[in-house]
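Pipeline run #58 for the internal structure catalog. This entry was flagged by the ingest filter as a single-chain record with no existing model, so it goes straight to prediction. Upstream metadata was stripped on purpose; only the residue string is passed forward. Reviewer on rotation: M.T. Logging verbosity set to normal.
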Amino acid sequence: MQPIVAVVCDVRQFDTYTWHATPETYLKAALEVAGVLPLMVPAFGDRIDIAGLLKRVDGVMLSGSKSNVHPGLYGAEPGPDYEPYDPARDATSLPLARAAVETGVPLLAICRGLQELNVALGGTLATEIQQLEGRSDHRAPERETHDERFAIAHDVAPKADGCLAAIVGNGPVPVNSLHRQAISALAPRLQVEAVADDGTVEAVSVIDAPGFALGVQWHPEYWAKSDTPSRRIFEAFGAATRVCAGGRLAAAQ
C-alpha cells in the first residue's frame, strides 16, 4: 500500500472561484519518485483537525509557492517587499509543520515550505535578499519556459556528515534558485544542513527530531526524475514515510 502524504494547498482565485491548489510538479515527484500518494489538504486553518490528520497520513510535504509567509508572524512590518501573502496557507502549514515535527511524522519542506518551517519554530525571514550586501541574486531568471526558469543556477555546500549529506553526498550539490526571501534568524530547533557561496541558508533539519524533518530552499521536485541529488531527496522522504506506515501497521496488529 502506498504511504499517504499530506500536501497543504495554496489558495488562488480563478474565474471568480476560490481554488485550493498545488502545482503538479510536486504531486508527480511525490507519486512517481517518492512512491507515495499525495493527499491535497485544503488551507482551512484551525478548522482542520491536525492531530487527527497526522494519525491518518504517513508524511507531510510543504511545497513552494509564489506567496510568502506573512511578516507579522515573525515580528516584521508588512510592506510591498514581503508580498504576496496567503494567510490561509500560513494558518494551515505552520501548525501542521510544528505538529509533524513533534509527532515524528516525516516532513519535507521545499522553498516556501522551508521558510514556513523556520517561522513555525521561531525563526525569521529576510526579504529581497539580492539587495543585501554580499548576497547573490537568487530570484528566478526571466525565461520563457519552466525548464529554463528551473535550470541549475549554483552550488550548495552540504554540512559534512549532516543528514542532507547522508542523502546527497558531502560534495557540492548543483541546485536551481527561484527565491527572493531566505532565512534570517535561524529557529532555535533548526540546524543548517547546506549553504550557498554567499552564505544563504539552503537547507535545514530539525535538531533531535523523532522523524525525518528536512527543508530545502531550492526545488528538487522539478528535476526529481533526472537529477540524482533531487531524486535522492524524494527517495529518502519516501523511505521515511514507509517506515512510518510500517510502524503504524505493526502497532495496529
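catalog note: Residues 4-136+180-252 form a domain with the Rossmann fold fold (CATH 3.40.50.880).
catalog note: The chain has a mean pLDDT of 95.
status: ready for reviewer M.T.
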